[in-house]
Write a structure and sequence with these properties.
globular; single chain; alpha+beta
Length: 143
């Protein structure tokens, strides 16, 4: 089922985006933080959804340190609805998303200009595997 492309992100959208991120990581044979670091910077078209794309890059964390980023980007719908972050030196991982509903296990921290709820799940002692596991959980959310 294809949903109408609006600036509001549904649970179905988040499920698809999480699946797309997992598909790209698998296709690119990225199975560890070392693999991820070796591929940065990386950008590709998102599987089967134009004009969306996936970006693997470095960014900054809220703590002012570097973080690996795994982003699903919708340039025509208000930016980044799903992002994985893995801190390089602080031993944390985080998944950030925006959707029209709160997702179990996530903490709400704002609302964007389109009414999407900004929310995150912090994993203080997490890493690459935790982010992948969370993407798998999101992919399998009930509708």
């Amino acid at each position: 089922m294809v949903t109408e492309r609006t600036n509001r992100f549904t649970i179905l959208d988040i499920k698809r985006y999480a699946g797309a991120l997992l598909d790209v990581l698998k296709q690119e044979r990225i199975t560890s933080l070392t693999d991820l670091g070796a591929r940065i910077p990386f950008r590709c078209k998102a599987p089967s959804t134009f004009p969306d794309f996936v970006v693997l890059d470095m960014g900054t964390s809220a703590k002012g340190t570097s973080a690996y980023l795994i982003d699903y980007i919708c340039p025509d719908r208000g930016g980044v609805p799903l992002e994985g972050r893995i801190g390089t030196s602080t031993g944390y991982a985080e998944v950030i998303l925006k959707a029209d509903k709160i997702i179990a296990g996530y903490e709400r921290w704002g609302i964007d200009s389109f009414g999407n709820i900004r929310q995150d799940k912090k994993m203080p002692n997490g890493g690459f595997d935790n982010v992948l596991e969370e993407f798998r959980r999101l992919r399998n959310l009930p509708d």
